[in-house]
Amino acid sequence: MKKLRKKVYIAAGYNTISMGTGRSEFNPKKERPGLEHYIKEAGQATIKQINDAANIDEGVIGNFMAARFNKQANLPGFIPFIDEKLQWKPAISVEGACGSGGLALVTGLKSVLAETADAVLVLGVEVQNTMKAIYGADVLAGAGWYKKRKEGHAYFFPGQFSNRAGAYYEKYGMDYAREGLKRWFVNAMENARLCPTAQEYESKETDLYKLYDKFNPNGANFVDNLTVLDCSKVSDGASSIIMASEEGLIKLGIDKKDAVEIVGWAQVERNITHEPENLTELITIKKAAKEALDSAGLIIDDLGTIETHDCFSIAGILGVEAIGFAEPGKGAQFVADGHTARDGKIPINTTGGLIGWGHPTGATGVHQAVTIWEQLTEKAGDAQIEINPDRPYGMTINMGGDDVTVIAMIYKKAE
Amino acid sequence: MKKLRKKVYIAAGYNTISMGTGRSEFNPKKERPGLEHYIKEAGQATIKQINDAANIDEGVIGNFMAARFNKQANLPGFIPFIDEKLQWKPAISVEGACGSGGLALVTGLKSVLAETADAVLVLGVEVQNTMKAIYGADVLAGAGWYKKRKEGHAYFFPGQFSNRAGAYYEKYGMDYAREGLKRWFVNAMENARLCPTAQEYESKETDLYKLYDKFNPNGANFVDNLTVLDCSKVSDGASSIIMASEEGLIKLGIDKKDAVEIVGWAQVERNITHEPENLTELITIKKAAKEALDSAGLIIDDLGTIETHDCFSIAGILGVEAIGFAEPGKGAQFVADGHTARDGKIPINTTGGLIGWGHPTGATGVHQAVTIWEQLTEKAGDAQIEINPDRPYGMTINMGGDDVTVIAMIYKKAE
After folding, report:
1. Closest approach of chain B CAs to the CA of A268, in angstroms?
2. In angstroms, what CA-CA distances link A360 with A98, A186, A238, B141?
């Protein structure tokens, strides 16, 4: 359990559009904006919210696979590309597959705690529409132990989570389980339609429940136990925040009403070479959520909203169980009953999550933090939920690989 | 300038062999140990030096291009693969091209400063003999701005530093300059022959000066202004250290006589999309060396030994000038005069550096720290130098890309 030795805040935030199929701007046949564009857009937009880029002491980039999607590494070198006032300042890039954004948050947090920075620009980015999805699936397989790739499905990661879904169906009943997954999908789409940067913002489908029922898991086309509607998006995008100390907020000219405080966190790693012992449990998420709550001295009932890592709908349901809102096997019911909807007991993924908003892999952890910052400071626009004053805390859960790298963080409106 | 808010030590260290052409164990036609092997060997060997892996709070991996050389990402997941007692603990991977190892040092340092850890396992690794050098050169080009790759040489990075060498020749004279480069090469080989893990340990050449003279820069075979002898090795390898607070040293059961203290550091980033303004100056290294000295309250004459990033011999000479041992243009003379040899004024790269010891890219920054730790605690075996008590400090300079990502650190024997 890691107590925070000083106060750390999120002072600003921004998401680019989550770009990919579904967005009218997206033309897979035309050249699209590259890595450089997304880094610059997200970085500059966040810097615009503070008084002067010179007050930023350091930059962090979270990214998963620019090395293969864009053949580009040495990503710290793009921090001064955002703003010339960042030239000669410290910069770093961090990686933990789809948990890279969460690791970027942790890295910024530690710099403030270490007192080597009073303000850190923390950015996550991924541009993965540079290749077809089937080739991209091989790249994304690097989030698991690549050496065993040959035993896996062509769509490696969907295959992993399809196996988890299959185990859940077997234990608790497929029809029962898919009612929960369906509601997860519907919530995701409905929330995304309220958020202009979401990949599914323009979705026009009138009956989402019916749409979901039209698709049946079919191993011949995709994977055995999930359909493409259970799957997060292939997305290009970047998100960024500025993390700051108390002194940093003042230097940046940010009022506390526009900031959230980070009050707890956890970072938990599972051996990537091990198969999960129990396919129906996300044990690393379970440990991270508990550790983060403990580190903040909070209980689950203190949480008012959550962004959790639904790379697949089944990861959403299993996440609800792992965080502790439902007993094993009861998560599908909890979701089907509407408790995770935006007007439910615990609104989850209020701008659509990875399935509705999109999943630019290395950016996702930062995107989650931006969303919580927006919700707790009432900047979420049409997607704004009402925060129950008795449950004022937000949480993010970001996962890399199949329950391998997990980062949890807890936030409250700054006071 | 970043003052360290508490004492941080290096408590243990280990280098695997730098594996590649030159080593008798290396057979390019047979399957070689993979990424997993090197991570495990280096991690376990360092852990063996402390009382119990359970006392390690966190793990960091520095790596550049496992994504392409090994198709593997989510590297934090290999921390618990080293030792099961690291399961569920925080882990992270960091990247900054060939500066990835130095960024791993910074990350461990910050965790101790942040008081989120009392002991951190910091590891660097690269396994790049998975492809032929010409394909590998395309991978390594990701350390520069890949978008301009098409304008570059087939051997992109050698091309960049060949241009720097060419500019130096033009300004100060080629014959003069190559006398310095020659001595740099000879020092590297002679030092490597004293270190059993060095890639050139088994080198038997009787007249290294003559050997160097046999090669002439020839753009037709390699690059215009450098030969393969001016070039660091293609290497597989891993290095690791354990960083600890004062309390951490006690928990780990490490006596101060076996530890070094980190007394200063700097991390400086140059915009990767900019061409260097002056090809004969490594301005980022210059800034980093000065900042690190300033942060420790030291001057250059306090330094007794240095590990600097000689990815090419010209980077060694320019590094000597950038650190401040010689005026612009005088570095070649300084080196040719033997001042950087192991019995010189300022012994540099005492186990061979990147040209003699080897350059497993993501591991190099950590390897440099291991070497300084060994020298200052008298564990360097046949490569041991005598540390002048009036100049008791060691420094490491690790660079990613063409003077883009630079990390400098200063050490002294713990007291």
Report:
1. 5
2. 8, 21, 7, 24
Domain membership of residue A127 (yes or no) is yes
Q: Quickly count: other Cβ atoms within 10 Å of residue A178's Cβ.
A: 26
**A73 in contact with chain B, both atoms CB, cutoff 8 A:** yes
Name residues 290-319 of chain B within 8 A of A (Cβ): none
Alpha carbon distance A404, A143 (integer Å) = 9
Q: Are A75 and B61 in contact (CB under 8 A)?
A: no
CB-based contact B112:B248 (threshold 8 Å): yes
**Identity (one letter) of the amino acid at B6?**
K
Domain count, chain B: 1
Annotate A302-325 with b (16+ C-beta within 10 A) or e (fewer).
bbbbbbbbbbbbbbbbbbbbbbeb
Examine residue B55 and state whether it is found in any structural domain, yes or no.
yes
- Cβ contact (<8 Å) for B95 and A77? no
**What distance in Å separates the CA atoms of residue A365 and residue A111, rounded to the nearest whole number?**
18
Instruction: Classify burial at A70, counting beta carbons within 10 Å of its beta carbon; exposed 0-12, middle 13-18, buried 19 or more.
Output: buried
Distance in angstroms (rounded) separating the CA atoms of residues B40 and A375: 43
- Considering only CA atoms, give the Rg of chain A: 20
Residues 6+ apart with CB under 8 A from A403: A270, A276, A282, A283, A284, A285
The predicted-structure confidence for B60-74, as pLDDT tens digits, reads as follows 999 999 999 999 999
| Residue B392, pLDDT score | 98
Which residue blocks in B215-330 are alpha helix, DSSP H? Answer: 246-252, 283-296, 313-323
> Which residue range(s) make up the domain with B105?
8-131+234-257
Q: Are A271 and B87 within 8 A, CB to CB?
A: yes
Contact B76 A64 (CB under 8 A): no
Mutate to test the interface with B, among A4, A92, A105 (most CBs of B within 10 A): A92
Indicate the SS3 state at residue A398.
strand
Between the alpha carbon of residue A179 and those of residues A160, A210, A272, A334, B146, the distances in Å are 21, 12, 31, 10, 47
| Nearest C-alpha in A relative to B295 | A116
Position B171, amino acid? K
Instruction: Tell me the per-residue pLDDT of A84-134, one tens digit each, with 9 for 90 and over.
Output: 999 999 999 999 999 999 999 999 999 999 999 999 999 999 999 999 888
Chain A partners within 8 Å of B75 (Cβ): 95-96
In CATH, what number is assigned to the domain containing residue A45? 3.40.47.10
CA atoms within 13 A on the CB side of A326: 23
* Partner-chain contact A110 B106, CB within 8 Å: no
| Complete DSSP assignment for A211-240 | HHHH----TTTS-SS--GGGBPPP-EEEEE
Is residue A398 domain-resident? no
Query: How far apart, in whole angstroms, are the C-alpha atoms of residue B402 and residue B404?
Result: 5
* Domain-embedded: residue B162: no
DSSP A273: T
How far apart are the C-alpha atoms of B13 and B47, rounded to whole Å? 9
With an 8 Å Cβ cutoff, is A284 touching chain B? yes
Q: Does the beta carbon of B86 lie under 8 angstroms from any beta carbon of chain A?
A: yes
CB distance from A116 to chain B under 8 Å? yes
pTM: predicted TM-score of the whole model, two decimal places: 0.98
Contacts A70 to B, Cβ<8 Å: 146
Contact between chains at B270 and A90 (C-beta distance less than 8 A): no
pLDDT tens digit string along A296-322?
Answer: 999 999 999 999 999 999 999 999 999
Q: What is the DSSP string of B160-220?
A: HHHHHHHHHHHHH-HHHHHHHHHHHHHHHHHHHTT-TTSTTTT---S-HHHHHHH----TT
- Partners of residue A65 in chain B, C-beta under 8 Å: 67, 73
- Nearest-5° angle of CA B399, CA B312, CA B21? 105
Q: Cβ of B234 under 8 Å from any chain A Cβ?
A: no
The backbone torsions φ and ψ at residue A119, rounded to the nearest 5 degrees and listed phi first, read -150, 130
Quick check: A81 contacting B, CB < 8 Å?
A: yes
